[in-house]
Write a structure and sequence with these properties.
two-stranded antiparallel ribbon, mainly alpha, 13 helices, binds 2-acetamido-2-deoxy-beta-D-glucopyranose
Length: 320
């Protein structure tokens, strides 16, 4: 009897030692590791699954936690906000888990991961803000105030895509989500990628915050056109600019993410107000996350004021 008890206590202490040792400085979760062709691949369970090199470093929840999400989006649940109770940290992390094995927030080490999360959320905050000049807490405290366009003036049905992405009668394809989706073809493409029928049921985006974040991160991670980078690749520097890109002043960094996502709507127009608003959110979040805006780099990397849109090739001859 007594000796069994001793064995039990000894085993319990042994396991405690393993648990303490498992908690190393790079991560709270001890990864499963294997080496394939000289490359170290890891699996960290639910947040970074499937043996990827990106799962060997810190994952997003190691450096971005609930209280930080609450700081960034401090006003989203105040009574005047328009999506009270909808957005939360859990839905963001759950959605991000699917893309971390592909490098979202897990490329290049902790600092780059923090910066990418701030950059992605900077876009999200800017697009979902109801902050204005005199809003309490300042105009940047109001990200994730919306989850949909409030008074759409049209159905956003483009008949040009009637064969690939036909509009469902009576359904409206107005803006919804974290990086709002507009138009039947964008709902169609996103739905195809996420294997959700968004063409018939686009309202799923405004009813499910995990799906809304998933759609937004998919957009961030996916090039819109051939021979263009994704916003992710443009941000972390996986994208190598061509000669034309260089001539068009397109350089890797935050500015290029705006170019990928919005092109001529915000880029190449000088000191554009909506461009500045996106940049301001990014810098504000870098500060709140404890990274500091000085990590954002110089103006020509941060801005796309002078960049030609990706869709546009530089003219080699002078236009004068
Ligand atoms: C892991 O982090 C280190 C720096 O901490 C970085 O050099 C390396 O590129 C990262 N691995 C991946 C796959 O991004
Ligand atoms: C919300 O979306 C996620 C991700 O697509 C899905 O796993 C989940 O089942 C959805 N929740 C509901 C209640 O439909
Ligand atoms: C570079 O731009 C020129 C037009 O200015 C175009 O003809 C050429 O195909 C482009 N090259 C690449 C690699 O995109």
């Amino acid at each position: 009897m007594e000796s069994k008890w001793c064995v039990f206590v000894a085993m319990a202490m042994f396991m405690l030692v393993i648990l303490v040792n498992g908690d190393d400085e790079t991560s709270a979760v001890k990864p499963k590791v294997k080496i394939v062709k000289g490359k170290k691949l890891c699996d960290k369970g639910w947040e970074c699954k499937g043996f990827s090199e990106y799962c060997c470093n810190q994952t997003i929840s190691d450096f971005f936690q609930t209280y930080q999400f609450e700081n960034l989006f401090a006003k989203r649940n105040t009574p005047v906000a328009h999506a009270v109770g909808f957005w939360d940290y859990h839905s963001f992390i759950t959605a991000a888990a699917q893309y971390q094995p592909h490098g979202f927030g897990t490329t290049g080490g902790k600092l780059m991961g923090q910066k990418e999360v701030a950059a992605f959320l900077g876009h999200v905050g800017s697009k979902t803000s109801c902050g204005y000049g005199v809003a309490t807490g300042g105009p940047l405290a109001w990200g994730l105030c919306y989850n949909k366009e409030m008074s759409p003036s049209k159905l956003y049905c483009d008949d040009y895509y009637k064969y690939d992405y036909p509009c469902t009668p009576g359904v409206s394809y107005h803006g919804r989500g974290a990086l709002p989706i507009y138009w039947n073809y964008n709902y169609g493409k996103t739905g195809e990628a996420l294997k959700v029928d968004l063409l018939n049921y686009p309202e799923q985006i405004e009813n499910n915050a995990t799906l809304a974040f998933q759609a937004a991160i998919w957009r961030w991670m996916t090039p819109d056109k051939k021979n263009q980078p994704s916003a992710h690749e443009a941000f972390v520097g996986k994208w190598k600019p061509t000669k034309n890109d260089t001539l068009a002043k397109r350089v890797p960094g935050f500015g290029a993410t705006m170019n990928v996502l919005y092109g001529d709507q915000v880029c190449g127009k000088g000191d554009d107000e909506s461009m500045n608003n996106i940049v301001s959110h990014y810098l504000y979040y870098l500060d709140l996350m404890g990274v500091g805006r000085e990590e954002a780099g110089p103006h020509e990397v941060l801005s796309c004021a002078e960049q030609l849109p990706f869709s546009q090739a530089p003219t080699t001859t002078s236009s004068s």
